[in-house]
Amino acid sequence: MSSITFPYAGPNHASSSSVSMSDSQFTASYDPPTDTSAFQMNPLSSHPPRTPRTSIMSNASHVFGTDIYDTKADAEEKSQEIEVEDSDLEDEKPGSAKSRVRREEVWRELLKSANGRDKAFKLLQYSMKMYLVFHLAITSSPLLKGQKRPPWETELLKRLTSAVAGFSLTRKCLILFNWLPPLTSILTQHSSDPYATQKGKQKPLLHTFLHAPPPVLLEFVNGLADDAATFSKLGLIGHRTGQRAGRLADWCWFASTLVNLVENSVERSVILDLQHQVESRLYTESMGGATAKSNPAASKFDEKELVRLQKQDHWIQVTRMKLLMDLIFVSYDVFHFKRAKGQIQTIAGLTSAVLSSAKLYDRHKNLLSKSHTH
After folding, report:
1. Helix, strand or coil, per DSSP, at residue 259
2. What is the spatial distance between Cα 222 and Cα 248, in angstroms, rounded to a whole number?
3. pLDDT, tens digit (0-9, with 9 covering 90-100), for 293-333
4. Is 170 exposed, middle or buried (0-12, 13-18, 19+ CB in 10 A)?
5. Ramachandran sector of residue 336 (left: φ over 0; alpha: ψ -120 to 50; beta: rest)
């Protein structure tokens, strides 16, 4: 009966080397490992060590991977992943279209529109008013009160006051006939009434006006009242009629600002909900790790969507701050507040001008970058 040779036998097992199965049959005998820090499996055990995948890749001339089991949907997902990566690389290039847009081009496009010129004149108007407010506060201080001012300073104050009034009238002329867009929207709704197309009978135009959305109706009445107040300042309408139209315009502006603040809050809640959903998907994907069910293309799309939602939320907050400044400004005129009226209205007007100009600047910059890419 032949005996069995145990690997790494001790000195007491030296006599067991004379067996019928010679040592030449075991060309790859088991030697004790020199590095005890790594795990080593006995090759003579009943479960031989598995060959690593790298050895298959290095020894075989061609290996069929998991690509042969990919479906058409998997192939489309991989192509989408490549497209997303390519678009990301294009955006990260230093010579991209957005980086090629110059400030002069943005201001040129911004000043082409009446809205852009209104924002530029508003910045100039309230910057001058802010200087006048600070000048009045400094000269009224106990240190400088009663001192004689130089003649050039008095002339400068007169010129700045006249320029502020001129910019105010210019801005009012720029927004003349601002009631035409809401009127067009109401008339379009009136002509596309489904009741008229089905029954062949047109509803009265007054019915369409009364059932128009409140923001559109407020904008229409506000535009008419603003035009009447502007015509009064130009001398085309009586002073009393202009004052009444101005008060109506202030109340319409106050109501439309409140409506826009409510819409802004609702819109931001929707954006935050979408942002939370995208962040939850990204967190689940990151905690799950790279598995067979993971979709890198979807993860990249979620990352880009998250950036877009964060930017949209940023501009929604800018719009909310601008609306709050407008609400503070018009509240002084509607409720006839007197305490610190000039200072508060100047600060609110300048802040509103800066925020609205920044938003309009970013919009024109994005439009220019898109036109350069195409």
Report:
1. helix
2. 7
3. 667 777 888 899 999 999 999 999 999 999 999 999 999 99
4. middle
5. left
